[in-house]
Specification:
single chain, alpha+beta, 4 domains, five-stranded antiparallel β-sheet, three-stranded antiparallel β-sheet, 15 helices, elongated
Length: 432
């Protein structure tokens, strides 16, 4: 152990001496002064530039991720101006054949931080975004400062061997960085493609969801495989491990897999789609979103139900708008035997037509259905074209219209009545 620490100490000492020899010369103070001057100028110029561009950017309509990326770049106008000034100054020093190693290093580090801070802003979790930006910048700084070999050797020395597979700290860090970056890029591209699919008028609603999910799955899987291969991970060596893990996951995630496959089947057969009004058990509402594991249904009272996809395959589902938006509704009522049933039917139809939500897709009809114990029973049928706006409320509106119309026409609505007769026994009658 002491010998190892001595070796590390000697390596660090040699690196510091090499770094001093590289950066410290008669031009170092000038370069530091130029960097400081560029930073001061960037503070004032960047602030003025930010005020002008931010108002212009907020007027742009389009992809929200691209807009967020643009706003983030504008809010870092100081860094943009700083990098631009350093770039121009370095070009001048190159033209004058003046040593510019320190200035070039600061330029690379500043540009790396600018790019990383802007790109990671698309990550909605602010803490995660800052962590990814910091890790990425440290990686770039290690490479720029020329200590990548030493740090890489130290990280590669810390390793764990599982059979023929050797997993080192360097491999884990490199794989994590590459996988995160590539998968994030794949998700970003898939989001842009999904936006274009959503704006397409030639694809059905369920087709849009299906294509969007397929694009995201293919891009993420392909990005993950590419990232692991690029970092030196032998995918064939992980076959046995992934097989064993897959069996365990398969038993533990049966419902998840079932819901995922059910979601694909729903999208393929187009039995339900966003905007449909459905009834499943006691849940009545309209579909707002189809996800990989569940269907989001919003009811009339504002509640959002996340119903597993499997329920739409295994249970009876009433889709009120499967073929079209036209829905027939029945309202039953009864009137007195003293009223003319012909007149009652005409009044009921006129009352239904007076409601704005009653459609003229088919004319309302009113049928006499039975001669009841206390009333003549009728069934009023009418159609609506907006079931997502509710069924109970339109029934209530029609019933109120019937009440008002019957009151105006003198039509009475009876209530159940029973006649009770008391009969005196014969032996009491003889006594009287």
């Amino acid at each position: 152990m002491p010998q190892r620490w001595t070796q590390w100490g000697n390596a660090v000492e040699r690196w510091l001496l090499d770094l001093a020899a590289l950066y410290w010369n008669e031009w170092t103070l000038l370069q530091l002064a130029l960097v400081a001057a560029a930073w001061l100028v960037a503070q004032f110029a960047g602030k003025a530039l930010e005020r002008r561009l931010e108002g212009w950017a907020r007027g742009i309509k389009g992809n929200p991720d691209l807009l967020r990326l643009l706003i983030t770049s504008i809010r870092r106008s100081r860094w943009v101006v700083f990098v631009a000034i350093l770039f121009v100054v370095r070009l001048g020093m190159i033209a004058a054949k003046t040593p510019d190693v320190l200035l070039a290093t600061v330029l690379l580090l500043a540009a790396a931080w600018l790019v990383l801070s802007v790109l990671t802003r698309l990550i909605r979790n602010r803490t995660l975004a800052r962590g990814v930006a910091a890790i990425g910048w440290i990686y770039v700084a290690v490479q720029v400062l020329g200590i990548g070999t030493q740090v890489g050797a130290a990280l590669d020395y810390t390793a764990l061997s599982i059979g023929q597979v050797r997993i080192s700290a360097l491999l884990v860090i490199r794989a994590a960085l590459v996988v995160t970056g590539v998968v994030w890029l794949a998700l970003f591209v898939s989001h842009i493609i999904e936006g274009r699919i959503e704006r397409s008028d030639d694809v059905s609603a369920s087709g849009k969801v299906l294509f969007s999910k397929l694009v995201r799955i293919v891009l993420v899987i392909g990005a993950g495989a590419f990232a692991l291969t690029a970092t030196g991970v032998d995918l064939t060596a992980l076959t046995v491990i992934s097989g064993a893990v897959g069996v365990g996951i398969g038993f533990g995630l049966q419902k998840v897999v079932s819901n995922f496959i059910s979601g694909i089947l729903i999208l393929l057969d187009r039995s339900v789609k966003p905007g449909d009004t459905i009834e499943l058990g006691e849940t009545f509402g309209w579909i707002t979103e189809l996800r990989a594991r569940f269907v989001s249904v919003v009811t009339r009272d504002g509640r959002k139900y996340l119903i597993p996809n499997e329920d739409f395959i295994t249970q009876q589902v009433i889709n009120w708008s499967y073929s079209d938006q036209n829905v027939r509704i029945d309202v039953e009522f009864g009137v007195s035997y003293e009223d003319d049933p012909h007149h009652v039917g005409a009044v009921a139809i006129a009352a239904a037509k007076s409601i704005a939500r009653v459609s003229n897709f088919k004319e309302p009809v009113c049928w006499l259905t039975a001669f009841g114990a206390s009333s003549i029973d009728f069934k009023l049928r009418f159609w609506i074209t907006d079931p997502q706006n509710g069924l109970t409320n339109v029934r209530g509106q029609v019933l109120l219209a019937l009440w008002d119309a019957f009151k105006a026409e003198g039509i009475s609505i009876p209530f159940p009545q029973q006649e009770v007769r008391f009969k005196t026994p014969l032996h009491l009658q003889k006594e009287n």
